[in-house]
Design goal:
single chain, nine-stranded mixed β-sheet, six-stranded parallel β-sheet, Dihydrodipicolinate Reductase, domain 2, alpha/beta
């Protein structure tokens, strides 16, 4: 396959993620100079897709993605539908020879993930899936600290990912409370992906999970909860490194963060570090400030006791974004475009890494149901 000069994209799903976070950035002149063209948009709500087409200058609109795949001259799709629809749409797109970008989580089961990866390979198309956490400067720095032995051998960690369950959204959040929704696939996915980058593959999980609030209300609409809204997981990374993860839809607003504790110190990643447009600090605490620290870390250490704040740059972007909140998504899409144009595999937001995280969630629910620890088959590589 030779180098591709132009990538024609069709966007499937015109809800908040697409219209607020992605499309304003995707149609900027810089993307056109990179050879990216928004050709088509698709959504099952006709009024919404019509508004989206007019707002962002797409040539075509569809209410059925199968028609878009069959009729449009697009090269690639970007999928922003509810999570339970990711797999069938991504699979159909790959089968039609389209390159596929899909929002998190890629699928909801390991079987689906294996099927999609097999189809992508057979059809010789590219697959990129969010979240590509290592595009974030904070996480690259944290991983470098771990690799350099800055806090010594990692010993244990913890994660908190809590929100109000999207009840504040302007569009109906009912699907978050149906099979394929819940806090793991929509929220904890960021943290598990990050910790796998830091500590490697998860080998075993043990979990408790259930429905705490059976009924929710969005505006005047009643939502009967069919998906666990509270889950606690013990993650075994091997070598006796354990991380606890709590994720739920029981919060007021959004609360989260995580930390990795080592023999000589701690790296703490507050929620703000996970958000591309919030100026949050990554914090490091050294137990022994006289310990051996590599020269390239000395300026950060500042030779002082207690917590040291490091405020990293925001996501690097090649042009000013109209929707800065979506910087982390556009970083993944830029990797997607590069993979198509240069005929290469993704190094950050890969389907193989997404598959491992999906298995973590599937096995966690199985552990909670069976009362037994579950071993994982896949690796984060």
């Amino acid at each position: 396959m030779g180098l591709v000069k132009k990538v024609r994209i069709g966007v499937i799903g015109c809800g908040v993620a697409a219209t607020r976070d992605v499309l304003p950035n995707l149609v900027q002149p810089e993307m056109a100079r990179r050879g990216v063209e928004l050709v088509a948009v698709c959504d099952t709500v006709k009024s919404r897709v019509k508004t989206t087409m007019k707002a962002f200058g797409a040539r075509e609109m569809y209410v059925d993605y199968t028609e878009m795949l069959a009729e449009s001259d697009i090269d690639a799709v970007a999928i922003f539908t509810p999570i339970n629809l990711h797999y069938p749409i991504a699979l159909a797109s790959a089968q039609e020879g389209k390159h596929v970008y899909v929002q998190k989580a890629m699928t909801t089961t390991l079987k689906e993930a294996n099927s999609l990866l097999s189809t992508v390979e057979k059809q010789n198309v590219k697959l990129v899936t969010s979240p590509g956490q290592m595009h974030n400067p904070s996480f690259r720095m944290a991983r470098a600290m771990l690799s350099d032995g800055l806090i010594g051998k990692p010993l244990w960690g913890h994660i908190l990912a809590s929100s109000d369950g999207h009840i504040h959204e302007r569009t109906d959040p009912s699907w978050y409370y149906k099979p394929g929704g819940g806090p793991l696939y929509s929220f904890l996915v960021y943290y598990i992906t990050t910790f796998c980058w830091m500590l490697g593959s998860i080998q075993k999980v043990t979990a408790l999970s259930g429905i705490t609030i059976p009924t929710r209300w969005w505006k005047q609409k009643r939502i009967d909860n069919e998906m666990d809204d509270s889950t606690m997981i013990l993650l075994d990374f091997g070598d006796s490194i354990y991380v606890s993860a709590i994720s739920n839809f029981l919060g007021k607003g959004v609360v989260g963060g995580g930390a990795i504790y080592g023999a000589n110190g701690v790296i703490r990643l507050p929620l703000a570090v996970y958000r591309s447009t919030q100026q949050g600090s990554m914090q490091v605490l050294w137990y022994n400030i006289l310990g051996k620290i590599k020269n390239n870390i000395n300026p950060l250490k500042q030779r002082m006791k207690g917590w040291v704040d490091w405020t990293p740059p925001l996501f690097p972007t090649p042009y000013p974004l109209s929707a800065p909140w979506g910087a982390h998504i556009i970083a993944d899409i830029l990797e997607f475009i590069d993979c198509i144009k240069e005929d290469k595999k993704p190094t950050v937001a890969s389907g193989e890494r997404a598959r491992h995280v999906i298995e973590v969630f599937e096995k966690s629910y199985l552990s909670a149901k069976s009362g037994k620890a579950q071993k994982l088959e896949t690796v984060f590589a």
